[in-house]
Write a structure and sequence with these properties.
The protein is an alpha+beta fold. Among the domains are: about 70-150, Immunoglobulins (Immunoglobulin-like, Sandwich), CATH 2.60.40.10; about 165-245, Sandwich (Immunoglobulin-like), CATH 2.60.40.10. It contains 1 helix and 14 strands; from the N terminus they run αββββββββββββββ. The strands form 4 sheets. It has a 4-stranded antiparallel sheet, with no helix packed on it. A 4-stranded antiparallel sheet has the order 11-10-13-14, with no helix packed on it. Strands 1-2-5 form a 3-stranded antiparallel sheet, with no helix packed on it. Strand 1 and strand 2 form a beta hairpin.
Length: about 250
């Protein structure tokens, strides 16, 4: 058997040819991967561009206000009034504010009914309702509903006694009030309510036997008035005092 013996130079030349072929194959594969990656990248960019929402589009602002709510009384008791209301709007979501004698008692509720509690028997109250839509538009106020709650004892016409004594403490413009409780021919003292007025304006109602209150006066003389009211709505003569405030 004959064996071919290659010289050192021939072996080196053959190795170089084999290495060049492998490198050429590696370069070709790298070029192919690069081309595929570029195509995938351009495809993803195109898809992302296609999925973008149109820019520069501004939705028109809702400027249509809801209609004035229509309000109905559903129940009346000596100490409560129940109301129901509705309004129309181009938005499906409406919020309502219920006012009792000008004071909001249910601000921005999503309900279409509510009950005002802790009312005085024989008291007169005015209720109005206002709607607001999702765009922040307010409706006109509803037509006012004014009513008087029934008395607990229609035959009781005798008022409580006038609170006998008033004990004020003044700190800056804060006036802390304490008075002697009234008595009544029918109600226990815990059933007597007290209306506290400051300079002619009702500022507090004390119930449940409470005979204290804190009010805030103006610089100078302040007129405080306290009236006792029984469960039938009979009101006593007022206990009045002038309290000097300096701050």
């Amino acid at each position: 058997m004959l064996m071919r013996v290659m010289s050192k130079g021939q072996r080196l030349e053959r190795g170089l040819k084999r290495g060049n072929g492998q490198r050429a194959l590696g370069v070709s594969a790298l070029v192919l991967v690069t081309l595929l990656s570029g195509l995938e990248g351009r495809g993803a960019a195109a898809a992302a561009e296609k999925s973008k929402a149109p820019s520069g589009i501004t939705l028109p602002r809702d400027r249509t206000a809801p209609s004035a709510p229509e309000v109905a009384v559903t129940d009346v008791g000596p100490t409560h009034v129940s109301l129901a209301w509705s309004a129309t709007d181009d938005s499906p979501h409406l919020w309502y504010t219920v006012y009792q004698n000008g004071v909001p008692i249910y601000p921005l509720t999503g309900r279409e009914s509510a009950t005002a509690y802790l009312l005085l028997p024989g008291g007169t109250y005015t209720f109005v309702v206002r709607a607001r839509d999702f765009g922040g538009n307010f409706s006109p106020l509803s037509a006012p509903i004014t009513l008087t709650t029934p008395r607990l004892n229609s035959w009781d016409n005798e008022p409580p006694t006038t609170p006998a004594e008033l004990f004020p403490d003044v700190f800056d413009n804060e006036i802390s009030l304490r008075w002697s409780e009234s008595s009544d021919n029918q109600d226990p003292s815990s059933m007597i309510a007290y209306e506290i007025s400051l300079n002619g304006e009702l500022v507090d109602v004390a119930v449940g036997g409470r005979t204290t209150s804190i009010v805030y006066g103006v610089n100078g003389p302040n007129v405080v008035s306290i009236v006792a009211i029984d469960s039938s709505g009979n009101a006593s003569e007022p206990l009045s005092a002038i309290i000097q405030v300096e701050f």
